[in-house]
Amino acid sequence: MLTTQRKAAILDALARDGQVLAGELSTTFGVSEDTIRRDLRELAAEGLLQRVHGGALPVSPAIAPFERRQDIESVAKRRLARHAVGMIASGQIVIVDGGTTSALLVRELPADLRATIVTHSPSVAVALAEHPLVEVILIGGRLYKHSIVAVGAAAMEGVSRIHADLYFMGVTGVHPTAGLSTGDFEEAAIKRALAARAAETVVLASSSKLNAASQFVIGDITLAQTIIVEKATALELTKPIEAAGVTVVRA
Q1: Which Pfam family, an example, fits this chain (predicted)?
Q2: Residues 113 and 201 both lie in one domain
Q3: How do residues 161-219 score in pLDDT, each as one tens digit?
Q4: Residue 225 and residue 123 share a domain
Q5: How far is the CA of 148 from the CAs of 76, 131, 134, 145, in angstroms?
Q6: Separation CA 14–CA 32 (nearest Å)
Q7: Biggest alpha carbon distance in the chain?
Q8: Over the stretch 46-80, which tens digit does the pLDDT of each residue have?
Q9: N or C: which end of the chain has fewer CB within 10 A?
Q10: Containing domain of residue 174, as a range?
Q11: Are strands 179-182 and 216-219 parallel, antiparallel or unpaired?
C-alpha cells in the first residue's frame, strides 16, 4: 500500500470510529508503529487530525480564525445561545467567554435582565455597551487576536478578584477522555482560571466540537458541570460525557 493510500485509510478510520490507535493501525497495515507515527505527524501538520498519546482524534474546525468561524453552524449556535440565556437569573454575576457562540449569547439577553457580565472579550463588552440594565466588567490583558480575548498576567490578576454564579466557557474540543481543549496555551490557562472562579461552568458545544480535540487542554471533561448540545446530537457522543458525571442539555 502506498503512503498516500495508507493516510487516506487512516482518515477514513478516524471519521468512522472517532479515534485511531497507533498500535492497531500498525497491525492493520502491516507496518511499524514508527511508520504510523510518521503518518500521523504528517497528517497533523496538514491540520487533518489531532495527535494524542497513543494515536489521534478528529481535529476541531473551531480553531479557524474568528471571521471564518462566525459562519460555521450559526443556526445551531444561536439555539445553544438562547438556551444558555435562559439559565441566567436576575442579579447574577456571569462570566462570558470570547468566541462566536458567546457573541450570539449576548445578543439574546433580554432587555429587562439586570445582571453583571464579566468578560475578557472586548467584542462581548462592546456588544453589551447599550444594554440598559447589564453592568459590564471588562478584564484586560494581552489581546489574543485569534479569539479576540485578553490573556496573560494582567488578565489572570483580574480573574482572581471574581466570584461568579455562572461561567459560559468557549472551547474548540469536547472529548470524554481528552477533555476540554482549545488552540492556544495561554487561552487554555485563562479558561481554567475563570472556571475556578465560578460556581458552575457551562460549555456550549456545537456538533463540530464534540469528540474532537485541539492542541491545548483546558481540563478534564468534569471541569464543566453542564454541556449544552444540539437537540439532534447522537447518543453515542453524549453518553460517555454523562457517564463522567456531566449534565448534558439538548437545545
Answers
A1: DeoRC
A2: yes
A3: 999 999 999 999 999 999 999 989 999 999 999 999 999 999 999 888 999 999 999 99
A4: yes
A5: 22, 21, 21, 5
A6: 19
A7: 66
A8: 888 888 888 999 887 765 555 554 555 578 888 99
A9: N
A10: 66-250
A11: antiparallel
